[in-house]
Amino acid sequence: MSLWVRLCAPWEATVAVRLSSEARGADVRAALTPWLGQADVRLTTRGGQPVYAHSHVVGDMDLVVRARFCGGKGGFGNMLRAQGGRMSARGKHESQDSCRDLQGRRVGSVKQAQLLAEYVAQASERQAAWDEAQKRKYAKLERMLGRAPKSMADYEAAAEKLDEAGETLEEEGAQPSSSKRERLDDHDYVEQSREIVDHVRGAVASAMRKKRRKGKERAA
Length: 220
Description:
The chain is of the alpha+beta class. Helices cover 51% and strands 10% of the residues. The protein is built from seven helices and four strands. Strand 1 and strand 2 form a beta hairpin. The longest helix has 33 residues. Belongs to the SDE2 family.
């Protein structure tokens, strides 16, 4: 019987071979030796079904010979790891906030959520620090007057003393942090300190205006 065999790249040819009626796949391979030599090939039908060395062949079969190639660049996992390595190398110089993580969330949105959570978690510490600053301002005001202020006149007197001493109620620099953070539990005292500090700021502004007027009158 005669069989038509199509040889794929690198041979690119169609050849006819004559075989016995009981030929097998190994006989077909042997008949193709003049064209293929000892090349490692794969014999299949046109539909892609493999023809093994022990498989029977019949005269109406159309066979295809394809060369086998060794190795490769790996599967999808290797490609994904390689691409991840390249993205990590670029990440030092490029922003990836518009990219998405494995859950489909944008990296930029995840970062913002983390920053917001940290900000909310530190709210009590910020409030305690602000209350402590108000307490120090109130203590400084009492120290300048020698007693607790009771009226606007006391605030103005404290403002004048602060101005003469060249001091202000604002902190000039960060205070060194103590080993143990002090917590203010007297909320009424803190609220009173806030009101007094606000009054003192107004009194300081008023005292400064009066001082400027006196300076202008003396100059005139």
